[in-house]
Amino acid sequence: MTRKLLFSTLILTLLVPAVVGASPFGGGEEAFARGQRGGSLFGPIPLARLARFLELTEDQVTAIRQIAEDTRDAGAPTRDELRTARTDLRTLLEGDSPDATTVGETVLAMHDLRQDLQDLRQGARDAALEELTDEQRDRLQDLLDRRGERPRRGARGAFGAAPEAAF
User: Fold this and answer.
1) Three-state SS string across the chain, please?
2) Which of 11, 13, 53, 76 has its C-alpha lying 20 to 30 A from 69's C-alpha?
3) 136-153: per-residue pLDDT in tens?
4) CA distance 121 to 93
5) Which are the contacts of 94, defined by CB distance < 8 A and separation ≥ 6?
6) For the chain, what percent of residues have pLDDT higher than 90?
7) Rounded to 10 degrees, what is the CA torsion of 77, 23, 15, 20?
8) Rounded Cα–Cα distance for residues 149 and 121 (Å)
9) Where is average pLDDT lowest: 33-37, 49-53, 85-89?
10) Distance of CA 144 to the CA centre of its chain
């Protein structure tokens, strides 16, 4: 019993402040996948701009747009669950005496949902990368290297935010 209480208190103390203040979409990448704020699956860089720089064909652009749309649609239920869990967590924390175990379970569930979204986005990036030629992948990786961007996991380590100065 004491261990369970200690564990729950630790979760409450360490994770809840970060969770409540954090974006439920992992830094807005879902917004980029939807094309909001001028971004794409590739980060805060519009697909049209990236298409010009990498000299993507219309078929490649269409395929990548479809991947982004499919990813958005596939992630919608998970994003809804995450929103609900976040609301539940706030309600718990605003209560008179929040149960540490319930709070901890909610935080862990939110973590799992975020991980599911991250895995979905990574799968989309990998699928989009497959649409590129070897030369286009190399150019994209060169852009990331010049910026000093740490490559993300996935085929050939590509797909981070591309440098704006290159455009």
Assistant:
1) CHHHHHHHHHHHHHCHHHHHHCCCCCCCHHHHHCCHHHCECCECCCHHHHHHHHCCCHHHHHHHHHHHHHHHHHHHHHHHHHHHHHHHHHHHHHCCCCCHHHHHHHHHHHHHHHHHHHHHHHHHHHHHHHCCCHHHHHHHHHHHHHHCCCCCCCHHHCCCCCCHHHC
2) 53
3) 999 988 876 776 655 454
4) 30
5) none
6) 49
7) -100
8) 18
9) 33-37
10) 18
User: Residues of 88-116 as b/e, b for ≥16 C-beta within 10 angstroms?
Assistant: ebeebeeeeebebeebbebbeebeebbeb
Tokens of 91: 């309600």
Residue 43, beta-bridge partner list:
40
* Full 3-state SS string of 53-80: HHCCCHHHHHHHHHHHHHHHHHHHHHHH
Length of the chain: 167
Tokens 């704020």 correspond to what residue?
37
Higher pLDDT, 121 or 39: 121
DSSP class of residue 28 equals T
The amino acid that residue 65 corresponds to is R
